[in-house]
Write the structure tokens for this entry.
Amino acid sequence: MQLLVSPATIEEAKKALSADIVDVKRPEEGSLGASFPWIIRAIKDLTHKPVSAAIGDFDYKPGGAALTALGAAAAGADYIKIGLMFDGIEEAEMLIHSVTRAVKETYPEKMVVIAAYSDWERLETISPYDMAPLAAKAGADISMVDTGIKDGKSTFEFMDETRLVEFTKLNQKLGIKTALAGSLKFEDIEILKRINPDIIGVRGMVCGGDRRAMVQEELVLKAVSMVH
Ligand SMILES: O=C[C@H](O)COP(=O)(O)O
């Protein structure tokens, strides 16, 4: 299991370099809010670790999503991560295909991460179970869940251990990796190890519990030591 930590600034990224993957995002713009290309590039220049970039909680706009994905890849992101903030299988298929093609045509080695939300029922968006086969079919690399509304409620409040194991196994069967996130806490790490996704993603945990605060280096080190 790898640890992905989401800093919002270059200063925070310097405190997150012990994570396995450094994930650049702009929390003010949403759960998977996109940052600026110059921030992604500057963070990429800080480290040899893989850098991930969130590109937004997207409405059904496949053209905009594809161009944004290519922009994040060109800025240096090794993982390009998009959230599906809409419903509809055909729409999701079109958007996932467009984003994956946009990245892979120019950067076949880069990873495409498709996220659906653990709180999809309250958001009325596509479920992670419906998203996963579409991500696998399009040739994306990682199927992810995160909370779409960041109100302190954790993914575990919407998907219990059984449902997260089901999601992880579905991805394994489809030949795609699994990432889990959404207000995860230190005390969840043992359960997460049992579920055994490929990646867990955190921000609030390493900000002292409040994702609007700053990433703290000692909490990143604590998370790294607990995960590995
Ligand atoms: O990709 C990971 C997310 O940034 C998780 O953020 P959070 O732990 O504050 O919910």
About this structure: The two ends are 7 Å apart (CA to CA). DSSP finds nine helices and eight strands in the chain. The pocket of glyceraldehyde-3-phosphate is lined by residues 4, 6, 23, 146-147, 150, 181-184, 201-205, 211 (CB under 6 Å).
